[in-house]
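User: For a reading group we're discussing how well predicted structures match intuition. Take STAS domain-containing protein. Before you show the prediction, I'll give you the sequence so everyone sees exactly what went in.
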Amino acid sequence: MPLESKANGEDIRESFPQPMEIIYTCTRGFFTRKQLFKRLPILQWLPSYTLQYLVDDIVAGLSVALTVIPQGIAYAAIANLDPQYGLYSAFMGCFIYCIVGSCKDVTIGPTAIMSLMINAHVGNSGPEFAILSAFVTGCVVLLLGILNLGFLVQFISFPVTVGFTSAAAITIASGQVKSLIGISGQSNEFLDSWINVFQHVQDIRLWDSVLGVSTIIVLLILMQMKNLKGNIFWRMFGKYVALSRNAIAVITGAFLAYSLSDIRNSHPFLLTGNVTPGLPPIQLPPFSTTIGELSYSFSEMIAKLGTSIITLPLIAVLESVAIAKAFSKGKPIDATQEMIALGISNIAGSFVSSMPVTGSFTRSAVNNNSGVRTQLGGITTGIVVLVALGLLTKTFYYIPKASLAGVIIAAMLFMVEFQAAAEIWRTKRIDFIPMMCTMVACLLLGLEYGMIVGIGINVCIVLYQISRPSIETMPLTIDGICVLVAKPDQNLMYSSAEYLKHQLLKQADKHQCQFIVLDGLHINSVDTTVAKALVSMTHDLEHSDRKIVYWKWNRSVQCTLLRMDRTLFQKTFRHEESIDVIIKELIAQQTPTRSAV
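Assistant: Thanks. Here is the predicted 3D structure of STAS domain-containing protein, as structure tokens, for the group to look at:
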């Protein structure tokens, strides 16, 4: 029947929103004062800013800077880039987020997971690809934010996130073992890293190993200083020692390397080496490049970036929004604004040779524990990083690779989410399957493919649950006639169509019921496949001289079925409160027919 058909004088056509209505809804209020304050959060907190806030923000900014400088150098190594690129990535996000960021605790910059994913795609192709990747990531994230598509990250469930994060931490730590013990090697993948270690066992350097292991032990000890007891002085001393532990470990390692090399006229440790001094040039991202004798156009560079143009933005959004929620203390977080801030940070960063950045949980925790009051703390962090680039790069030469490896491994020890895994096992054990599959796949196949495997398994589990709705059946006897009442507990999707039909016919045959009442109280939507299956089931029951009644189905679902077959369905919908009344009416309708026969 055509969609213009009417049942009982009512219009059953399916309505669609007009294009102008969609445009109006999306743009309504876009150019208002309220929207301006929403998209520029600095306008909300700056007017009420005080001098006391400034002191707290400077202290917090310094604490974060002392963390991000050694981390930036280390993360550049993970991405297989020169050390300065880690620092180039550490300041622009701080400045941008101060203006458009909505959570005072979040710090934007290089992270271990993003660095590892950059290495997988552009680690051997030169910094130009990493910089372009930052630009593309920023454009994609900004577009997702403008279009309010942040819901896409909701398809990545908590178990998949736990498996992904844990696998990333294990992979990153494994990739740093070679630097920890002073052996050569390029790969940062889990299996390749350990194969490389066992192949070069004979090349292990004693003093690098001692320094690396000692760095990890010292970092773990310093982290406990935050729990120092005593008067206010000792508590504050322990707090800031714990917050600055990474800087303390790296500075101590560099001083030790410099002192020993000066005494022995040789280097007992493998060192970071030369770091390009000075600030990065402000220029357009590289839309073409030449590596050796090969020239790459923009399209060829994008092709080489591969799936990272999708996975990097999703992981960046997932990390940043999750961190903002973790530190929001119950306040609502505008995911769209966080995506806009992150997108602009990456785009602006690509103009100063930054690799892709996102929110850092470690540095955000440092920011929070340091008592930051507003986003202005990021300005201090950015300025300190710029000062380090301009004045301190010569001292970075003596930073031992083993110290940086120790810093990374110590951080990764707390990224393996044992507690979250225990919660998943305790709460719902079937969720342990996508978590473990994600983790194993990430370790064996790589982070991106592992994430896809995890999401795929999760979707399969959800589809299976949707395709097998719980159907409550209750056989009744009314006037000596068997009546089967069936009530599905959820909406009916195409994957559940044949299952529903099979179960109803099976139960009707089992109880020899002449009437079937299908209760649609919990059914708010059906698709074409379900409608077709219900047509087939209704015909099958009629051929076996049985009747079906569609009871308490809402209007939108009725219209869907009527558009499929109005003649068949318009006589089967009933809304009476009592099943007894419905069945007795049907029995009365059948009695004259049988008498006539």
